[in-house]
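Look over this record as teaching material.
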Amino acid sequence: MLETLPLLEKTAFPALQRESVSILQVNLGYLCNQQCLHCHVNAGPKRTEIMNADNIQHVIDYLDASNVKLLDLTGGAPELNPHFRELVKAARARNVEVIDRCNLTILDEPGQENLAEFLAEYGVQVTASLPCYQKENVDGQRGKGVFDKSIAGLKKLNQLGYGQADTKLELNLVYNPTGPFLPPPQNVLEADYKQKLFEEHGIVFTQLLTLANMPIQRFGSSLISMGTFNDYMVLLQTAHKDENLQTVMCRNLISVDWQGYLYDCDFNQMLDLPMQLTHSKKPHLRDVLNQDVSGTPIVVSGHCYGCTAGQGSSCGGALI
């Protein structure tokens, strides 16, 4: 895989500082039952990195010591971590909301047959990857057969009450562009998704989140190979909007990798750009259990334009 960081380090991206932390985003490991072209984590079935029990306990300790109200679980497929359900139960017992960033096909994996029921029982918000409502686009980006399995997973979640207007079970879908271009307006695309998925499959969901593809890891490497990396960077920089700087996710989020080390966001984590704290070159979650990190500088690089281009992009969808 071709390295993108040397092409991103020299940047004019504006300086940012962290505000109070309200979201703890935890990568439970890179193991995944899929291997997608756009994946900025480079996850896949052969990855062996998994968060261990000690670091799971550090996460729980941080929830006890902080004012965090949202635990955002990601991967890989976070559900493949053997401690996933234990962590969900611990967070919900502390009245902390939980997001499971689910690829949908995991609901059909051996050993995960009752996963959907577990998520519903504990009121976990499901944020599910579905890069398009058309089969050929999804299978082209994520692998043959993924679309049909994703539709089956969505139907199962709907049957449990997810995405239904009369329940509190939130089901959000995630759109990623299939190439080096920005997402269309989120509200317009959401309307298309809701119409197509209901008419063709009887599926309902809460909202659509549009995410820009980051020029890092697998996607960034493919851009370099095709000779389009610089063109994509020009697109992101030209579309940058200063107003998006006020609501970028890194201002109130801490990202934790599978070893417990801290980053300003999931993308910095993949580039190995750790948080900047005075007491450590590479801070660990156990180091900040009783520390207020608001006001600390956020590490920025050229890829940050992916979050501020156009309508903006974050783990919670468009910023505008």
The chain has one domain: 5-308. Residues 312 and 319 are 5 Å apart (CA to CA). The domain at 5-308 is CATH 3.20.20.70 (TIM Barrel). The chain has a mean pLDDT of 93.
